[in-house]
Design brief:
The protein has 562 residues and is of the alpha/beta class. 38% of the residues lie in helices and 13% in strands.
Length: 562
């Protein structure tokens, strides 16, 4: 017979009815505390890990020269003899004794101080150093020195990316506080050629935009319309040349960074072949970085006259190479051909059945004008272009990611991808960037490099049938300053941000040289430019072509604002 036990004491009853909930409450609080402590410790560990992979501040924050970004208390005298003179003309005036380098340098310094606040073109002025260099150039002339460089005594500017001793090199990023401890290879070569470096020019954050804005410097504006961008990443330099602050600028181009500012500011520009010039010594603010990958990027000049490009090129082309990324180059000399002896290919659209890069009416009109002019000169013109736009753009994005993501931790590469999505052109090519940031291995680099060599061979085959290719640089004139990635205004509706520059990075993918040609102004008074692409190492012939084109195209037209 079974017996059912019943609680027999009040103590037992109290345990059942009151002790159990209290114990459960204490147990719940205990485990809640454990979980919270675990989450707190995990958050701290995660935070420390994130903090460890984010690049640390290098050097002290740069103190700006505030007088560059505000109107002067009193307007300084400028010398009209030198206003918008070409570098070639100024060099001749110095050599002949018609003017001194000191006089010319003082004119440029005054003009910068009077007007730079409108455009934020320069971010650093080397006033004292420039005047010392100018006096040294004048002394050489007075002493009868005949061993003068091509830029002897001529004041120029250099993109902030490149080291100029005593000047900031930050890429407009707070993480870098570098003041260049010495001249980089490019600045040193220009100084050996006699150039007087006035200062350094504005760039976008990490050189990664077609506008010039960032974390340190005021946003740069276009001298033709300050509501618009001068382009990027050599935007500050282009604005400086167009505003008459300098006789010429050394910029750089990894995705259109010489050509887009040239087009937006009405300038001539030369993007040399990848590997033509040494850019690794003094070309980056991170002094701890050991670079093993490099592709596409190349320094190049911007100027108001095509002959000035030759002065810069002659000053730079024999500089010592970096054997890690360069090989000795046997450059063909320029021919004596006339325009009637050239075979020009041309294109105003570029794509395939999946996507076509197009341009607006202003660019089409200027392209047809140039083609008509060349036709009258007897040039052979063929509407032809390799149908590899999509492959080139995919390779461009992949290469860009593999270079900039090299040795970066996974989380930082993810953050970089999130930031770069504003530049997704929406045609599927951005997958190259995403894939390369996910897999930034050497094996991936080798695959992308092999693909780049295949695409380069296609171009070189194309240039055996054509001497040069004429095509647009941008969809239209400089666009209004906006948030990166915004939709831009096209002729028939909005245009995606990267669709406005569809002819930029695709050329960098294979590193072919280009000549930027200013085609005058549109109905709104804004510059329009085109580009001429040549075979590898055809800089001399491109510069010869530039001089043939000079009397036939509008060229640089000074902005009315100045």
């Amino acid at each position: 017979m079974s017996t059912i036990l019943q609680p027999t004491t009040s103590a037992t009853s109290a345990f059942v009815h009151t002790g159990t909930p209290e114990r459960r409450k204490r147990t719940m609080l205990y485990w809640t505390g454990i979980v919270l402590c675990f989450l707190l410790v995990s958050a701290c560990i995660l935070g420390l890990w994130v903090w460890s992979v984010i690049p640390a501040q290098q050097g002290r924050p740069v103190a700006l020269q505030q007088e560059l970004f505000a109107p002067p208390e009193q307007t300084l005298p400028e010398d009209p003899r030198f206003l918008y003179k070409s570098a070639t003309e100024l060099a001749a005036m110095i050599r002949s004794g018609e003017a001194t380098s000191t006089e010319i340098t003082r004119h440029f310094i005054a003009r910068i101080k009077n007007h730079n606040h409108r455009y934020n073109a320069l971010i650093w002025l080397r006033e004292e150093e420039a005047l010392v260099d100018a006096a040294r150039a004048d002394a050489a002339i007075a002493n009868g020195d005949t061993a003068l460089g091509p830029l002897h005594g001529v004041p120029i500017t250099i993109k902030e990316q490149f080291w100029v001793k005593g000047s900031p090199a930050t890429l407009n990023a707070k993480m870098f506080g570098l003041i260049a401890p010495e001249d980089g290879a490019l600045a040193a070569s220009l100084k050996r050629a006699g150039a007087v470096i006035l200062g350094t020019t504005n760039v976008p954050f990490m050189l990664s935009d077609y506008q010039t804005h960032g974390e340190l410097y005021p946003t740069a504006s276009n001298p033709y319309d300050t509501t618009r961008t001068p382009g990027g990443s050599s935007g500050g330099g282009a604005a400086a040349v167009a505003a008459g602050f300098t006789a010429g600028e050394l910029g750089s181009d990894m995705g259109g960074s010489v050509r887009v500012p040239s087009a937006f500011c009405g300038l001539w520009g030369l993007k040399p072949t990848y590997g033509a010039l040494n850019q690794t010594h003094g070309g980056w603010p991170d002094t701890t970085r050991v670079q093993r990958r490099l592709a596409m990027a190349q320094p190049g000049p911007l100027a108001r006259a095509p002959e000035d490009l030759t002065l810069f090129w002659d000053a730079l082309k024999h500089m010592p190479i970096d054997p890690r990324f360069q090989r000795p180059i046997d450059r063909p000399a320029a021919t004596a051909r006339t325009l009637s002896n050239y075979r020009f290919a041309w294109a105003e659209e570029w794509g395939d059945e999946h996507y076509t890069a197009k341009v607006g009416a202003d660019v089409r009109d200027k392209l047809q004008t140039l083609l008509g002019t060349l036709g009258k000169q007897g040039a052979m013109l063929t509407n032809d272009i390799p149908t590899i736009h999509a492959e080139l753009q995919h390779n461009f994005f992949a290469t860009f990611a593999l270079v900039h993501g090299e040795d970066k931790p996974w989380l930082l590469r993810k953050l970089m991808t999130m930031q770069m999505r504003a530049l997704d052109p929406g045609n599927g090519s951005f997958a190259g960037y995403e894939d390369a940031m996910d897999d930034n291995s050497d094996a991936h680099w080798e695959r992308v490099s092999a693909e780049r060599e295949r695409l380069t061979a296609i171009w070189e085959g194309f240039f055996r049938e054509h001497d040069f290719l004429i095509m647009p640089i941008t969809y239209g004139a400089a666009f209004t300053k906006c948030e990166t990635g915004s939709l831009l205004q096209g002729d028939n509706g909005p245009v995606r941000y990267m669709e406005y520059v569809p002819f930029g990075g695709v050329v960098n993918a294979t590193g072919h040289p280009t000549l930027s040609v200013p085609m005058g102004l549109n109905a709104d008074g804004m510059p329009i430019g085109l580009q001429v692409v040549g075979p590898l190492h055809s800089e001399e012939e491109l510069l010869h072509l530039a001089m043939l084109l000079k009397p036939l195209v509008p060229g640089f037209v000074p902005p009315k604002a100045l």
